[in-house]
């Protein structure tokens, strides 16, 4: 899975970190997830603890979007074979036009493009044509918010982009951003379920959201929307960006507050109330698989949290401190030990040395690892920390993340490493030190996965 694996696996601790990462990512792959959570027994489809009688349906469609949706569609076709009649999925996989009867449309991420809009329109046309005896398998995975792009009537793609940019720069939370985006969309916030009614909608999600909130994953196209047009307008007012968004967006949102534009479905609307939703995999899926590998190798294991958020470098320093404590005092776990964590860390861009004008080159997992590496070097801790984004793409780079130890930052390199962090320009330094981890696109996305390995004196060599 990892490029140049032999070079990275220089000690048993490094090799264990890689093996844990590989097991975690593999466990979250769509084919693995569908095989472990779904089964077909005669005409009964089992999804986790639920059962669906396929004899009730004349037609089965696969509709959805996200980075892992192509893999989910392929696994569903393998499972259900000729029972699937059609569908459309929008994903990032190149050079793939169909998976059996399911059409695959390549889209752009993270910024939606015109081809995203055209692909989503094709998907919505199939949803509109679904009947009462249609089962819609809605495959929703990380990246769906951008890939499933359908501007509400009267809105342009450029207006949506400008509005999203203003929201991102305002400091609004993801829930506040989604309140606006859902009310500017023809598919988000339960509208896909509404368009597919009276079909039966069964959502199969691979979660990239801390806490697995169905209304946040992919902006909740098949579930009730807890926000309203009033909430969306209030967000613009709260952050002082009302005049920064295009007039067509302001007019659309204000039309919603006055009742001229139909509200998104709430939990009382049958289209979403009758729709089932299953999280087939999430960050915990990856962590538990990694933990099993650690146990098999004779390491004590501890899950720090599957929901870590915050500034990447600070989270990295915390992991380094935990590693030092384990090595020195055997707390909170005796070595040899593996500490696991997941979630979604972020980077506040302050750097100025960037050809794109937004700081340097790197990603959250790379910054986390470099910050930990600095602490390892200062404390002479023998721990190893590997941190990756499970989709294989950390920030706008070709690396999944990085792996560091006490020798990653050499004597005399501390100032250079601190400057790289200050300028958000860590990629080049980590590449020079051979610390970058590369997988290419993995085919799944359940957010970050971190493995901290603290070896005993005898196993560290």
TrEMBL record:
UniProt cross-references to InterPro entries, sorted A to Z: GK-like_C_sf, GK_N_sf, MOFRL, MOFRL_assoc_dom, MOFRL_protein
Alphabetical list of SUPFAM superfamilies matching this protein: GckA/TtuD-like
GO cellular component entries: cytoplasm
Location of the MOFRL-associated domain: 17-254
GO molecular function, one term: glycerate kinase activity
Domain of life, source organism: Archaea
Name of this chain's protein: Glycerate kinase
């Amino acid at each position: 899975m990892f490029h140049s694996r032999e070079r990275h696996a220089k000690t048993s601790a490094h090799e264990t970190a890689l093996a844990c990462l590989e097991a975690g990512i593999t466990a979250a792959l769509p084919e693995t997830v569908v095989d472990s959570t779904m089964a077909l027994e005669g005409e009964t489809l089992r999804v986790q603890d639920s059962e669906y009688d396929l004899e009730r349906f004349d037609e089965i469609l696969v509709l959805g979007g996200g980075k892992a949706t192509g893999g989910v569609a392929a696994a569903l076709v393998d499972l259900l074979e000729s029972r699937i009649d059609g569908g459309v999925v929008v994903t990032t996989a190149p050079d793939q036009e169909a998976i059996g009867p399911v059409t695959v449309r390549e889209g752009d991420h993270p910024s939606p493009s015109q081809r995203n809009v055209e692909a989503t329109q094709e998907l919505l046309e199939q949803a509109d044509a679904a009947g009462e005896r249609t089962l819609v398998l809605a495959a929703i995975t990380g990246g769906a918010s951008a890939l499933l792009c359908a501007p509400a009537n009267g809105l342009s793609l450029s207006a949506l982009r400008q509005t999203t940019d203003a929201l991102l720069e305002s400091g609004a939370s993801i829930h506040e951003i989604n309140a606006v985006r859902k009310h500017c969309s023809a598919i988000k916030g339960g509208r896909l379920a509404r368009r597919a009614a009276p079909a039966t909608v069964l959502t199969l999600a691979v979660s990239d959201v801390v806490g697995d909130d169905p209304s946040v994953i992919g902006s909740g196209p098949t579930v009730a929307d807890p926000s309203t047009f009033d909430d969306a307008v209030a967000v613009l007012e709260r952050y002082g960006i009302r005049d920064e968004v295009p007039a067509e967006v302001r007019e659309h949102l204000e039309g919603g507050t006055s009742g001229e534009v139909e509200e998104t479905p709430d939990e009382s609307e049958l289209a979403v109330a009758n729709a089932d939703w299953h999280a087939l995999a999430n960050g915990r899926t990856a962590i538990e698989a990694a933990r099993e590998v650690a146990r098999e190798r004779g390491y004590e294991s501890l899950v720090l949290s599957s929901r870590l958020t915050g500034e990447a470098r600070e989270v990295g320093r915390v992991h380094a401190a935990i590693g030092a404590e384990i090595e020195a005092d055997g707390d909170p776990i005796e070595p040899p030990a593996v500490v696991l964590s997941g979630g979604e860390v972020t980077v506040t861009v302050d750097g100025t040395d960037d050809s794109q004008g937004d700081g340097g080159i790197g990603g959250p997992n790379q910054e986390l690892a470099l910050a930990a590496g600095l602490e390892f070097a200062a404390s002479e801790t023998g721990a190893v920390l590997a941190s990756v984004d499970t989709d294989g793409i950390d920030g706008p780079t070709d690396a999944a993340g990085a792996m560091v130890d006490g020798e990653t930052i050499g004597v005399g390199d501390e100032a250079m490493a601190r400057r790289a962090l200050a300028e958000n320009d860590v990629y080049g330094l980590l590449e020079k030190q051979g610390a970058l981890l590369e997988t290419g696109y993995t085919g799944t996305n359940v957010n970050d996965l971190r493995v901290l390995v603290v070896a005993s004196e005898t196993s560290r060599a």
